[in-house]
Design brief:
891 residues, mainly beta, Immunoglobulin-like, 14-stranded parallel sheet, globular
């Protein structure tokens, strides 16, 4: 809390109007300075060596630079006036360089709140921290105050015998960053457990009192680091203990000693041990479960997490994939200000479970250097059930205009009258008889096409032509809009920009409908605006649309887009891209994406998609949101059949953790096949996907330095030439086959991290190319390097050369198209040609080189045939996956 002389009593009472006891004790101390000196005369002071920072520090409220990781904690904070409640600790570290003193706080806190936004406002009423600094130990009562709350509001003062200026001061050049920087008001959010603040204070602010600025080796200052609680469980704690009867931070005689050391700290052995942190169970999907486990330590990255799982009630455990280690990787795009550092943690998934079933999962963290904390987590989690209508639901019947047959009651002409009870024209906005949660709206056969340019049209879609649906269902009581089964139901948009706006509608099921002639079939969410939850679109046909489903709101969750046919407006007869157009010119953006989503818990599966710019995408979005529930995690794209994209088949762009891209088939993509542009730590799983005919050679688009990519059992009938450096990737059991393109390598390895690994993969060389592989990686002894120049990549003409020079692909093999039963490569001389999946056979030939050439991976290739798993997407002798809709009703 702010300080001043006895003449500043009015200022203090304005500053801390509610902390009466603390204010009163401070005023007593200001009036009787000898009292606190006597109380503290025999008290030992803590001491801390402030080391020079080992590298550049960016003040962004993350504390993720190597310099911070190397710095030693100052020590436990003392709860000098504790009476009740949880004592939530603070980890503080201090560093310096020639310009600044740096202080970082990591505050454990389950109830984070702040409301003060006024400069020099009473920030100590909020969750806040303070630094009281006395640069001259001989004049410890000359000290400088820096008080900061969790949303970045700061108060500053100087208490000094030379200072005659105003009570509040404006220090020069201070930089401040917090984990909730810039938020107008922070309220308690369930699930939070900490917040972070860091500050850089230029030494020029201390020139009146410090012996040297910057300090010299061995200079000693006095200071205390303090923390005040928020509205809930308010606790007062200090780094250097204060022995006063009532809470009082303004006791300079109690300040601890810090000594400046002109070298970085020596890394202690203890930093190699791992300390488990918060364990997170992500939103379950129909067949997959995702988990996150925060850690600290493990600087040598040799900790692991073993996974076992079983259906609740079963006796035996099954082995799962180990959780994926991530942390300290950089995802950057400087021209747009994107700069994300992946937090230290494990994350991973358990795959291919049964819907609506409870599972028990066990996780054990191991580290040869030791585990400091609880090494085992056991949780029970239920996969999500297929959305279904409520039993004994109220049923409303919708008929098209001109229906001449009998009607079931209650009957309505047009969807809006059933949904809202609205009228025509200006009365179309009424909702006096709005649909209720749990209702089923059966839409009977016919054409539902409003004349949006006709005033008082019976459909109630005047001018904009949009059904704006806003009712709220629940998971147990969804609102269902379903074809009645007496013939095709066609919603024609009449050229409207958007036909169904469901951004404010929760838990709606659309089933069995045909939707056509609109730019956006379903507008389900916009970034930073609002979005739906629990949207299900099942067994529908979307044709002549620009966008199928657009759901880019971070707070959306649990979408299910399954068994649909989605047909865009792009060229159906030639493959044209938009980038570097050839002799036929670039593709016009008649359609954009079939499905683009953000948020968590989404499932996009068993759809047939054709003639769009992109097929299925995570919204690029930007840096991960600080709110865990607003990140793109736990998202499933599987068993989709994708044909003829002007850009990419599937994009994980913007994904954070547990993006699962499984068993999809893509044929004809003008630009790239599978994209990560970027992924913010991962893992993003690409497993058993088939990619055919990407004439650019960009089977894998890894741009904007994505991190955390796991590729198992994919079959790529194209080269893999990522466009940027990438980090922390694992490749196993993949097939990557060149297409006889002259002077083109088969794979461009662009490693920003030394711990990416490649093995048990099969490659088909391009005979007309001298260089088959390009290799870039950090120099020896360096774990990460994001400045590597790919133009200086090492080049190899064979897999044997790559293996000898890099140590990678110890078990990799060279293959040819003879590994397949009957598959030829696309014609490299005809990049605009169109191929059809029905004419392509990706099954392996019995006894071929790719059979039994893989490595077992738990939960991925359990139950393989033969001596070992096969390479590629298909296991020889087993049925290929079912791609696209599982019912022929909408084909």
């Amino acid at each position: 809390m702010g300080g001043g002389g006895t003449g500043d009593r009015v200022a203090f009472e304005r500053l801390v109007p509610y902390h009466g006891e603390m204010r009163d004790s401070l005023l007593v101390r200001l009036a009787m300075p000898g009292l606190t000196a006597a109380l503290l005369a025999a008290q030992p002071l803590p001491r801390y060596d402030v080391h020079r920072a080992a590298g550049r520090i960016v003040v962004d409220g993350k504390l993720d630079e190597p310099a911070w990781r190397q710095a030693r904690p100052a020590g436990d904070f003392h709860f000098n006036w504790w009476t009740a409640g949880e004592r939530e600790q603070t980890v503080a570290k201090i560093l310096w360089d020639d310009e600044n003193l740096y202080i970082g706080y990591h505050c454990l806190d389950k109830n984070i709140s702040a409301a003060v936004t006024e400069r020099h406002g009473p920030v100590s009423l909020d969750d806040s921290v303070e630094a009281f600094i006395s640069p001259n130990p001989a004049k410890v009562r000359n000290y400088y105050g820096f008080e900061m709350n969790v949303i970045g509001t700061m108060l500053n003062f100087i208490r000094a015998d030379w200072h005659q200026g105003p009570f509040f001061t404006e220090p020069e050049g201070v930089l401040l960053g917090t984990s909730h920087m810039g938020v107008l008001a922070k309220t308690d959010t369930p699930g939070e457990d900490h917040w972070v603040l860091e500050i850089a204070i230029p030494f020029r602010n201390f020139v009146r009192d410090a012996a040297h600025t910057p300090p010299h080796e061995g200079d000693v200052w006095r200071l205390n680091l303090n923390r005040a609680g928020g509205k809930t469980n308010a606790q007062y704690s200090t780094w250097s203990p204060v022995r006063t009867e009532r809470p009082n931070f303004h006791v300079p005689e109690a300040f601890g000693e810090v000594r400046f050391v002109n070298r970085p700290p020596v890394k202690p052995e203890a930093y190699d041990a791992v300390s488990p942190g918060r364990f997170v169970v992500e939103r379950p999907t129909l067949i997959n479960l995702g988990f996150e486990w925060a850690i600290s330590g493990d600087d040598n990255r040799n900790s692991t997490v073993e996974v076992q799982y079983r259906r609740t009630g079963d006796a035996g455990w099954k082995q799962g994939m180990p959780l994926f280690r991530l942390g300290s990787e950089k995802v950057t795009r400087p021209d747009l200000g994107l700069d994300h550092t992946v937090p230290e943690m494990f994350a991973g998934s358990i795959l291919d479970l049964e819907p609506g079933t409870e599972y028990e999962a066990r996780f054990e963290m191991r580290d040869p250097d030791g585990v400091k904390g609880n090494a085992v987590q056991v949780v029970k989690v239920r996969t999500r059930e297929e959305p279904r209508e409520m039993k004994n639901a109220r049923v409303l019947h919708v008929y098209p205009p001109g229906w001449s047959g009998p009607k079931a009651e209650p009957a309505f002409t047009g969807l809006k009258k059933a949904y809202y009870g609205s009228g025509n024209g200006d009365w179309s906005v009424l909702s006096e008889r709005k649909v209720r949660s749990g209702d089923v709206i059966l839409v009977h056969a016919g054409l539902y096409k409003g004349d949006r340019l006709k005033y008082s049209d019976p459909a109630g879609l005047d001018f904009d032509g949009t059904y704006v649906l806003t009712a709220k269902g629940t998971p147990q009581r969804p609102i269902v809009i379903r074809a009645a089964g007496d013939g095709e139901v066609i919603f024609d948009g009449d050229g409207a920009h958007n036909l169904f706006n469901v951004m404010a509608a929760d838990y709606h099921i659309f089933e069995g409908l045909t939707i056509r002639n609109t730019d956006i079939a379903f507008q389900a969410g916009l970034k930073d605006v609002t979005g739906a939850k629990g949207l299900t679109i099942r067994n529908c046909r979307l044709e002549d649309v620009g966008i199928g489903v657009n759901g880019q709101y971070a707070g959306s969750n649990d979408f299910q887009i399954t068994d649909n046919v989605m047909l865009g407006r792009d060229d159906r007869y030639r493959l044209l891209g938009w980038y570097n157009p050839g002799i036929y010119g670039g593709n016009r953006l008649k359609s954009y994406h079939a499905v683009k989503l953000y948020g968590s818990g989404h499932v996009v599966a068993h759809n047939y998609i054709a003639y769009f710019h992109d097929g299925i995408s995570v919204c690029t979005h930007g840096s991960p949101d600080r709110l865990e529930e607003h990140r793109a995690s736990a998202i499933d794209f599987y068993n989709n059949d994708i044909h003829l994209m002007a850009d990419d088949f599937i994009e994980a762009d913007g994904g954070v953790h547990n993006i699962r891209i499984l068993r999809n088939r893509g044929v004809n993509a003008a630009q790239c096949g599978l994209s990560a542009q970027p992924v913010y730590g991962g893992p993003a799983y690409y497993i058993r996907n088939v990619v055919y005919h990407v004439p650019t050679g960009c089977g894998l688009k890894f741009n904007v330095k994505p991190s955390g990519l796991v590729l198992y059992h994919n079959t790529l009938i194209t080269e893999a030439l990522p466009g940027d450096m990438y980090s922390n990737v694992v490749f196993r059991n993949n097939l990557i086959l060149g297409r006889d393109v002259a002077d083109r390598p088969v794979f461009r390895f662009s490693n920003a991290t030394a711990y990416s690994t490649y093995d048990y993969n099969g490659y088909r060389m391009n005979p007309k190319s001298k260089v088959q592989f390009q290799w870039t990686s950090p120099p020896a002894g360096k774990a990460r390097d994001y400045t590597a120049d790919r133009s200086r990549a090492r080049r190899f003409g064979s897999l044997a050369e790559l293996r000898a020079e890099t140590g990678q692909e110890a078990h990799g093999i060279e293959v040819d198209y003879g590994i397949f039963r009957n598959l030829a490569p696309p014609d490299a001389s005809k990049p605009q040609a169109i191929y059809h999946a029905r004419d392509l056979d990706f099954r392996l030939a019995p006894g071929g080189k790719a059979v039994d050439a893989g490595v077992p991976i738990p939960n991925i290739n359990d139950g393989f045939s033969g001596k070992a798993p096969d390479l590629g997407a298909y296991e020889e002798g087993q049925r290929p996956p079912v791609y696209g809709p599982r019912t022929g009703a909408r084909e």
